[in-house]
Specification:
By secondary structure, the chain is mostly helical. The protein is built from seven helices and two strands; from the N terminus they run E-H-H-H-H-H-E-H-H.
Length: 228
């Protein structure tokens, strides 16, 4: 087996999350009905607007928990923009592989920073815990981008979960924030929301370590076979 670095155009997208099939049908339905003035770049910008809404909603929840509704709406806007930009480009056959790959994933990184910084600045989760989750997400993103470079595979889901499932989890957590408030939890200084976000971040870090070992072994075997 010979493994060569791949260009963005030749990447194999691996997406095996629970909602992938239904989400793809919905995205195709939306692409077919999207007016011509909506472009992939405008959708990417829309996704960033959604991330800013999420950030603002969490920060403003220090004033009143009802501001969390803005964060929930932001998740819907962010999903729409982030999921539709590449889908629309492929549907219309106007892909710009290198540009799209670079801009899309750069915006993903910034959006993730805004979301988790907002969570950390809310009264429900400490910034220390939010940064653990941010580190886990970015580490797993680094693994995905490195794998794309050395394997030609862009893995978009882990443990049958992808970005859409994570959004649903965060929306559920946000609804619970509104329902339960900031009253002391059962874990002393750490609230139940801290435990949840910290656990998710820790799982992401463990996944990064495990996937790094698996990919490293795969590359070592491939290069051994190539020398024989």
């Amino acid at each position: 087996m010979t493994i060569q670095p791949q260009s963005p155009q030749s990447l194999s997208r691996i997406q095996q999350n629970w909602l992938a099939a239904n989400e793809r049908r919905l995205l195709n339905w939306l692409c077919h009905r999207m007016p011509s003035w909506i472009t992939p770049d405008r959708l990417t910008a829309t996704g960033m607007v959604g991330a800013i809404m999420i950030f603002a909603g969490y920060v403003a929840s220090n004033i009143a928990s009802s501001w969390l509704l803005l964060a929930i709406a932001g998740y819907a806007v962010q999903w729409f923009g982030d999921s539709m930009d590449g889908s629309l480009a492929r549907y219309r056959h106007i892909e710009r592989p290198s540009y799209g790959y670079f801009i899309d994933h750069s915006c993903d990184g910034l959006a993730t920073l805004l979301i988790l910084a907002g969570i950390g600045l809310s009264p429900f989760v400490t910034m220390d815990v939010a940064l653990i989750a941010l580190a886990g997400y970015l580490l797993l993103s680094i693994h995905a981008f490195l794998s794309a470079r050395v394997l030609g595979e862009l893995k978009l889901s882990y443990l049958s979960a992808g970005p859409t499932e994570l959004r649903f989890m965060l929306i559920g957590m946000t609804i619970m924030m509104m329902a339960l408030g900031t009253a002391p939890g059962l874990f002393g200084h750490w609230s139940g929301f801290d435990i949840f976000v910290g656990t998710v971040g820790s799982i992401l870090i463990v996944l990064f370590i495990g996937q790094t070992l698996v990919t490293g072994r795969r590359l070592a075997l491939a290069e051994t076979e190539r020398r024989i």
